[in-house]
Amino acid sequence: MREKSVKAKVCWVKEEAGGRQSPPSGPRYVTVARFDEEKDKWPNEAWSLVVDFRDSPDESLCMIADVRFLMPEAPVELLHTGSTFELFEGAKVVARGEVL
User: Fold this and answer.
1) How open is the CA angle 25-17-42, to the nearest 5 degrees?
2) For 70-93, how does the pLDDT look when each residue is reduced to its tens digit (9 = 90+)?
3) What is the full DSSP assignment across the chain?
4) How many other C-beta atoms are found inside a 10 Å radius of the C-beta of residue 19?
5) What ranges do the domains of the chain cover?
6) Which of 25, 31, 49, 51 has its CA 20 to 30 A from that of 99?
7) Does position 57 have pLDDT exceeding 60, yes or no?
8) Nearest residue to 15 (alpha-carbon basis) of 54, 61, 47, 83
9) Is 0.90 topped by the overall pTM?
10) Domain 6-99 in CATH 2.40.30.10
11) Distance CA 96, CA 72 (A)
C-alpha cells in the first residue's frame, strides 16, 4: 500500500550557505528529515522522507513536491498543513520544507 503523501514547498539551501552544490535532479529524492515539532527527539528518533518532485526549482531554489514517509510505521500525523521540516545529508541541512 502506498503511504499518504502530501504537497509541500521545499526550498534548497544554497551551496554558499552550507547546502548542496545543486538541488537533486529528481524525480525522487529520499533522505532523513527533522520536523520542528520533534526537534527534541533528534537525532535519536528520525524518519526518512520520500520527496517526489512536481517541477524544477525556481530561481530561489524552491519547488513544489509530494512528500511521504519511507516507512509505514512513521508518524504520519507530522504531515499536517503548516508542519515544517529540514532535510539532511549527514549533519548538513540541505533543504527546508513546509506542508501546504
Assistant:
1) 85
2) 998 999 999 999 999 999 999 999
3) -PPP-EEEEEEEPPGGGTS-SS----SEEEEEEEEGGGGGGTTTS-EEEEEEESS---TTSEEEEEEEESSTTS-GGG-STT-EEEEEETTEEEEEEEE-
4) 20
5) 6-99
6) 25
7) yes
8) 61
9) yes
10) yes
11) 23
Please, which residues have CB within 8 angstroms of residue 41's CB and are 6 or more apart in sequence? Answer: none
| pLDDT tens by residue, 3-56 | 689 999 999 999 999 999 999 988 999 999 999 999 999 889 899 999 999 999
Residue that the C-alpha cell 509541500 belongs to: 8
